[in-house]
From TrEMBL:
GO biological process: diaminopimelate biosynthetic process
Any one Gene Ontology molecular-function term assigned to this protein's record: N-acetyldiaminopimelate deacetylase activity
Source superkingdom: Bacteria
Keyword Disulfide bond: no
Cell membrane is among the record's keywords: no
NCBIfam families found in the cross-reference section: amidohydrolases (TIGR01891)
Peptidase M20 dimerisation domain sequence ranges: 188-282
Residue stretches in coiled coil: none
Keywords tagged on the record: Hydrolase
Record protein name field: Amidohydrolase
Length: 391
């Protein structure tokens, strides 16, 4: 006997919508997902699952054993955190916490995995074990790495791990699977350029860090256009410039901040090395001093081929999924599920979330998760378990 899949507009679907909108109304950011973790743990415990809390601070792991005996153990992961962002939506379930918002759909990810846990717990017709991993702090703060450091894979040994992300650029009812790179490595940099401040009308009496900084911003783009193999991808974006406070004062110091993205380790190394050289050389040429801190944040998210093909097979067999895109262009966005894929074979898919009423991009203050997709995501997880842990 196989589990009953969740159908559109069914009672089970409406329960998922209720959970999802409750999470959306109460967003919590990195390592502060206390209410969210409480709600997740309460639902999982009510199903009779073994529930562990506290990995990575606010992480939750629930374990379900199939009723067909021993077999492989796999992990299914959803992220729980929200963003520091003011929501501009005005619907009833919009954020009740000013400055915090579920603008990336993690409320939907959590709900879909809960839906799968409910369905599988009601009828665990499989051979082996499933670990449902609810992770904190995906946005910038490496919650996956924190859970791993707290012993995720030692306490819950598993052979494979899987994740997904909603993708507004794909219509609902479509999905994407990559046989390799899915998301880019995500790094950040902080540059401080120090000169000698003075009167804006007398620049010759100063060593101008503003001018030196402007040259640095331009020169950094030359790393991508002139040092990087044109057949490989990389991004350097200066996203913040801070310096000065008056119209007629050349400041003593300017700070630059930003991010870099890459897929290949050698490209990542090249970008970091050349940034140090370019920043310090240009500053020195202008009589300034420059200090740069380059911080490696997330590695690239790289699927293993066999596990990606498992996801493809499941998606292509689902009647709710009309099209599966294979190896579309990878995203320059970052994803800390990459830390899990460094440890275990696995795959990370994109699930179409777009529609006429849900056209806003991820991280938009007008974004809202498309609730019509909730059964598709939950059913994907259920079918993946059946596919991988068939008796």
């Amino acid at each position: 006997m196989m589990p009953n899949y969740i159908s559109q507009h069914s009672e089970q679907h409406q329960q998922l919508v209720k959970w999802r909108r409750d999470l959306h109304a109460h967003p919590e950011t990195a390592y502060e997902e206390f209410r969210t973790a409480d709600k997740v743990a309460e639902i999982l415990s009510s199903l009779g699952l073994e529930v562990d809390r506290g990995l990575g601070g606010t992480g939750v792991v629930a374990t379900l054993h199939g009723n067909q005996g021993d077999g492989p153990t796999i992990g299914l992961r959803a992220d729980m955190d929200a963003l520091d962002l003011d929501e501009l939506n005005t619907f009833e379930h919009c954020s009740r916490h000013q400055g915090k918002m579920h603008a990336c759909g993690h409320d939907g990810h959590t709900t879909m995995l809960l839906g799968a846990a409910v369905t599988l717990a009601q009828d665990p017709e499989f051979k082996g074990t499933v670990n449902f991993i609810f992770q904190p702090a995906e946005e910038n703060e490496a919650g996956a790495k924190a859970m791993i450091a707290d012993g995720l894979f030692e306490r819950f040994p598993m052979s494979q791990v899987y994740g997904l992300h909603n993708w507004p650029a794909l219509p609902a009812g479509e999905a994407a699977v990559h046989y390799g790179a899915v998301m880019a490595a995500f790094d950040t940099f902080d540059i401080t350029v120090t000169g000698i401040g003075g009167h804006g009308a007398m620049p010759h009496q100063t060593v101008d860090p503003v001018y030196a900084s402007s040259l640095i911003v331009s020169a950094l783009q030359g790393i991508i256009s002139r040092n990087l193999d044109p057949q490989k991808s990389g991004v350097i974006s200066v996203t913040q410039i801070h310096g000065g406070h008056a119209y007629n004062v050349i400041p003593e110091q300017v700070t630059l901040k930003g991010t870099t993205r890459s897929f290949c380790p050698e490209v990542r190394d090249l970008i970091e090395t050349r940034m140090h050289e370019v920043v310090r050389t240009i500053a020195q040429a202008q009589g300034c001093r420059a200090d740069i801190t380059y911080t490696r944040r997330y590695p690239a998210t790289i699927n293993t081929v066999d596990e990606a093909k498992h996801c493809q097979a499941v998606l292509e067999a689902m009647p709710e999924v009309q099209q599966v895109h294979i190896n579309p262009p990878a995203s320059m966005g970052g994803e800390d599920f990459a830390f899990m894929l460094e440890k275990l074979p696995g795959a990370y898919i994109w699930l179409g979330n777009g529609s006429a009423d849900h056209s806003h991009n991820l991280h938009s203050p007008n974004y809202d998760f498309n609730d019509e997709v909730l059964p598709i995501g939950a059913n994907f997880w259920v079918r993946l378990v059946q596919h991988l842990l068939a008796d």
